[in-house]
Amino acid sequence: MVNNTFKIIQDPINGPVKVPYNLQKIIDTPEFQRLRYIRQLGMCHLVFPGANHTRFEHSLGSMYLSQMFADTLEIEERELFIVASLLHDIGHPPLSHGAEETFEKITGLDHLHAGVKIILGQGDFSGSSIPEVLEEIGISPHDVADILLFKSRSKRLISRLVSGPIDVDELDYLRRDAMYTGVAMGNVDHRRILNVAKIVGDDVAIEEKGIGTLESILISRILMYSSVYFHKTSRIAQIMSAYAIDQNIDKFRHPFSMTDNDFYSIISHDSSMISRQIMARNLHKPVLRFHYTPELLALIKDALIKSDLEEWEYIIDVIPPLDFAGPGRVKSDMNVLSNNELADVTSLSPLIRTLRETLEKKSIIISSRLARTDRIKELLGTIQ
To answer: For the chain, N or C: smaller number of CB within 10 Å?
Structure first.
C-alpha cells in the first residue's frame, strides 16, 4: 500500500519543501543523516563565514528541483529520478571536494564511486541501510547506481538531469552557495529554465528564446568559480587540510563514514604546525603569481623541491586547476533547439564562447607560511 503522507521541510532557498513518506525513509538513514555534518563548500567558511551550509541541505534542494523538473517535463520514471537526485552526493567525504583528491589516494574512491557502493551496499559499505530502504520503497539500487554512473542508455535523460549541462545539482548549489557566501552573482532563475526546456530524444535542450537564460547561468557559474570555488585563500585552506590529513593518515582510513567534525577533532589534537595553523586560521599567505605555462610550473616545482623548505611550508597552486578545462568541465556543452534542430549553444552565442575561454587562462600562485615568504621570494624572484 502506498503511503501518501508527507512532511514539510522549510528550506531557506526554496521555501516549504514537501517530502513524501517514502523519501523520508531514505533521509532518516544514518548514511544520509551523515551529510548534515559535511559542509557543502569544505574550507570556504574560513573565507566566507556564512558558508556553513551542508550536503544535507543541498541534497534536499536537488530533490526539490527534481520534483519540479519531473512534473514540468513529464519524466516517465519520476520516482527514480527524484531518488537519484536525493542520493547523488551520499558518498561525499569530510570537507566535500576540498579533500576529495587526498581521500581518493587513501581509498581509491572518489565521492561518486563511494556513493554508488553505499547505494549498493558493496565492499566496505556492506552494512549500508540504503539498499534495503530502496528495495522497500520499490526502487532498484542498481538503477540508481546506473544513473549516477551514466551506465544505462535507456536512462541517459535522467543521468543528464542529475548531472549535466542543465541539472538539478547545479541549479541548487549555485543559488545556495551564492546565498550563504553573500555573493549575489550566483543567483539563477531555475523557473525560467523550466519554461524553456524541452526533451529531445534522451537529452534536454533549451529553446532558442532561452539563450539569454543560458548565458546568465554560465556567467553565474564562471563568476562563482572565480570568486568562491577558486578563491585563492579557499584553495590555500583546502591544500593545507590535505597536508594535515597526510600527517594523520592512519586516522582517515574510512573517510566515507566520517564527517567534518571528525576532521577537526583529529587535527585539534595534532601538535603539528600545519594543524595548529588551520585551527587558528593562520593560513599560508600568497607570495608570488605567474602566468601559467607547463615549463614554468616544472621550473618552480624543481626549485622548491631542491630547496631547504619542507613540503608543507609552501603551496604551488594553479588556478583554475589543470583538470578544470574543456566544454564538458565548464558545462558550456548545452544544446539549443533552433528551427527544430539541435545546435551547440556556442554556435549561437558569441558571449558563451568568450566566457568559456576565460577559464582557460591560468595562473600559478605560490603561497607559504609567513616565516618563509622571504625565502620563497629569494628562490623564485628571478624566475620568469
So the answer is: N
Q: CA of 261: how far to CAs of 38, 93, 275, in Å?
A: 8, 11, 14
Q: Which long-range contacts (CB under 8 A, 24 or more apart) does 6-13 make?
A: 9/60, 11/57, 11/60, 11/61, 11/64, 12/179, 13/57, 13/61, 13/172, 13/175, 13/176, 13/179
- Phi and psi at residue 209, in whole multiples of 5°? -65, -10
Residue 303: pLDDT band (50, 70, 90) is very high
Q: What CATH number does residue 11 fall under?
A: 1.10.3210.10
How far apart CA 178 and CA 64 sit, in angstroms, is: 18
CA dist 206 and 199 (Å) reads 9
Q: Retrieve residue 203's grid coordinates.
A: 537529452
Residue 274 lies in a domain: no
In the DSSP assignment, the letter for residue 237 is: H
Query: Once rounded to an integer, what is the mean pLDDT over residues 199-210?
Result: 86
Query: Within a domain: residue 204?
Result: yes
Kindly state the cell numbers that stand for 113.
Answer: 564511486
